[in-house]
Structures are given as structure tokens and as C-alpha cells.
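Ticket #4471: complex job returned nothing on first submit. Input attached below:
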Amino acid sequence: MRITCPLCGERDRREFYYKGAALVRPAEGADLDVWHGYVNLRENPAGPLDELWYHEMGCNSWLKVTRDTATHEILAVQLASEAGLGGET
Amino acid sequence: MAELIAKSPCDGLLPVTVGGMSLTEEDPGAMWAVAPFNGEDKALSQALEAAHGMAFPAANRATGKAGSRAVWFGRGMALLMGPEPDAKLAEHAALTDQSDAWAVVRLEGQGAEDVLARLVPVDLRAAVFKRGHTVRSELKHMMASVTRTGPQAFQIMVFRSMAKTLVHDLKTAMEAVAARG
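Support reply: We reran it on our side without changes. The output follows.
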């Protein structure tokens, strides 16, 4: 499995650390149910899933990686900071 | 007061020569992480050019020359090696002193690419990794920075605490490459 880092180029999976699903963070003051969903509820698809990966052994970027959980095919990669996941100031 | 004696990271470990390859320690001088503030990339590059004679490196590139080098060091960061950073740089970037924090070695000679091919999971052959190119990657599970400084020469850096492991792993790989003849 290889991930194409937007900065470093195509790299081996061993350089990356897996975080989990890439969800849009609710805005400050959001409803309790929304936060409950963000913190606890996850999809478990056999197919494409947006995930957060950290290029730990490379450029130290957080990446939003779209991976097919059934085939491990990497469908899309972008910097998490540019993926509109919330928390921007 | 105690008399403190400076010890380089690879003190007592290097130099090593195997086959036609040599592994030596570099004295990089001062090392500072330079991380431009949001939107200050261009202004910082100009200030760096004015003060130290090299532009801020693009991703996977190094600028400058031996003794005064700026090596791309990850997202939004470069490592200034050699000079103490000019005070003006602080207007555009966060400066962090990393001097003595990294072990810096130079691997040189016929077969150096083959040695690194055993340790670093990135294509470092001359056709795609030319002089002035750099990568952040792993070297046998250690976070490393590898920069090509010559046709057969690489600058390799890992955390200072891993200097002994770095020398061991490089030496083992050099011996294995040399043994193949």
C-alpha cells in the first residue's frame, strides 16, 4: 500500500500513522447530539472511506486519505489543513 | 566551574571506510529550524536571500552550499545549517535552535546509492534524486533527512540520540554492498 503525499510524493505505507475517520468537526456551541455523533458514531463501509493519516516519517503533514477498505486502493489524498474539516481560524 | 568539553554526536564512531565508500561525520555549525508564518513565505525567502544568500527551499529541495545550507525539513519548515540566523528572519518565521540535536554524516563513494537503497524506502538514484534534492523519510525505522550533496555523496541526518544506531546500520549496509563486489 502506497500513499501519494501532496508534498513528498508517493511513499510507502510504513511512513504513515493511521488516525481514523476524517470527520468535519462541529462548530463551537453545536448541539449535543451533533457532538455525540462526531465523537462516537462511525460508519464501517466495505468501500471508500475518508480517513486521517499522519506522515510521521516524512513531512509531518496530516492528510485526508480516501481509501477503499475492501481493496486498500488509495483513491484521493489531500492536506487535512485544506480539506475543510473544521477548526480553521 | 566545570570545564565542559564539546563532544560531537558520532565521536569515537567515525570515520569508517568500507570498499570504496567512506562514512564521515560533518560539523554542520549552527542548525536552526525556520518555519515561515502564515502568508510570509515570500518575504521570508527574500530575507533569507538577503542575509544568507539562498532562497527558502521548495518541498524536497535544498538551497545554498556546503557550510551555509537551507534544507527542506517538512511541511512549512526548513533547516538552516551553518550560519546563525539573521535577526531579521524572526520577523517572518519562527526560529528554533536545533544545534547539536541532529547527528550529521556524509556517505560518499561508488555504491552509496546501493547502501541507501537497503535502508531508505525512497528512490534515491541519480536519475530522479539529483544534487540539491532532499527527502524526509525513514532510515531503518529512524526519522531521517537525506540530501544529495554530490554525484556520489549524501548528507544523512537523524536525531543525535540515534547516532550509534545510524552508524551501525550504515556500516552494516556498506559491508553488505561491498561484499557483493
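The longest strand of chain A covers residues 48-54. Closing as resolved unless it happens again.
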